[in-house]
């Protein structure tokens, strides 16, 4: 299955991987900015999100993304991942390190992370609401938990729409198939990495960023004192320059002329 996706612009390829509270529409504030700056921007919906149907068998998100990029002829690419999309980006960068030129991770999740009491309580509350059939309340829980104080009402409604769409699509599935978890070693990641965390986020995501900043060979960590879990939506005017500066740096010496 080919993931639902959009492609905009031309130049070095940048892949945008969405949070599992959202879908590819979360990157609406970044897509035109990156394309206008001289990048070919690819964004896709993971299975069961946005316009991609739920899995029809065992699957692997990282493999799905790489197969899409193969179809698009992208031999090398930078990855920008938010939350669960960051976890997918880390897997791609470890399994196919020779293809990844840069890795920007916004409030990334991490395979094997032991959740804090706060994160466990959030997950248990979400599960209880969904089991009770209260999808609206579960959606509101995600919006209220994940967005920081700078998110305006339009942003809150956009996240609510994307999260509700994901719940509706996934809850309607007749059968649930497992995601395959191939082994990989994060020590194999060679790409320069930008780690972003938010002071208004759950504590786990700052802890993950700090851990990765120590583990990865070429990583720096930037804390945003205003941000919640979805800074690229909360204040795109602050995040977009950070992404542009980083992505231009990953292609320094590539021979490509990126627009200033």
Automatic annotation (TrEMBL):
Keywords: Hydrolase
SUPFAM superfamilies: alpha/beta-Hydrolases (SSF53474)
InterPro entries, per the entry: AB_hydrolase_1 (IPR000073), AB_hydrolase_fold (IPR029058), AB_hydrolase_sf (IPR050266), Epox_hydrolase-like (IPR000639)
Coiled coil start-end: none
Any Pfam family hit: Abhydrolase_6
Record keyword Hydrolase present: yes
Domain (AB hydrolase-1): residue spans on this chain: 14-240
GO function term, MF aspect, one: hydrolase activity
Listed PANTHER family: AB HYDROLASE SUPERFAMILY PROTEIN YCLE, MONOACYLGLYCEROL LIPASE
Name of protein: Alpha/beta hydrolase
């Amino acid at each position: 299955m080919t993931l639902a996706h959009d492609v905009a612009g031309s130049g070095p390829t940048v892949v945008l991987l969405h949070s599992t509270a959202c879908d590819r529409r979360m990157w609406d504030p970044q897509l035109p900015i990156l394309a206008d700056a001289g990048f070919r921007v690819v964004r896709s919906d993971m299975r069961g999100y946005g316009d991609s149907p739920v899995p029809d068998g065992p699957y692997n998100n990282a493999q799905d993304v790489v197969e899409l990029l193969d179809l698009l002829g992208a031999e090398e690419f930078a990855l920008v991942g938010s939350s669960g999309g960051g976890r997918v980006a880390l897997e791609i960068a470890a399994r196919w390190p020779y293809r990844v030129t840069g890795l920007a991770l916004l409030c990334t999740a991490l395979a094997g992370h032991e959740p804090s009491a706060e994160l466990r309580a959030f997950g248990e509350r979400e599960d209880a609401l969904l089991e009770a059939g209260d999808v609206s309340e579960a959606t509101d829980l995600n919006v209220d938990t994940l967005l920081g104080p700078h998110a305006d009402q339009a942003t809150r409604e956009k996240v609510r729409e994307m999260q509700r769409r994901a719940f509706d699509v996934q809850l309607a599935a007749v059968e649930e198939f497992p995601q395959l978890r191939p082994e990989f070693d994060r020590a194999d990641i060679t790409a320069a990495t930008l780690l972003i965390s938010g002071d208004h986020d759950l504590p786990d995501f700052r802890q993950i960023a700090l851990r990765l900043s120590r583990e990865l060979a070429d990583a720096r960590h930037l804390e945003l004192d205003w941000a919640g879990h979805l800074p690229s939506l909360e204040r795109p005017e602050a995040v977009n320059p950070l992404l542009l500066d980083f992505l231009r740096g990953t292609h320094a010496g590539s021979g490509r002329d990126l627009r200033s």
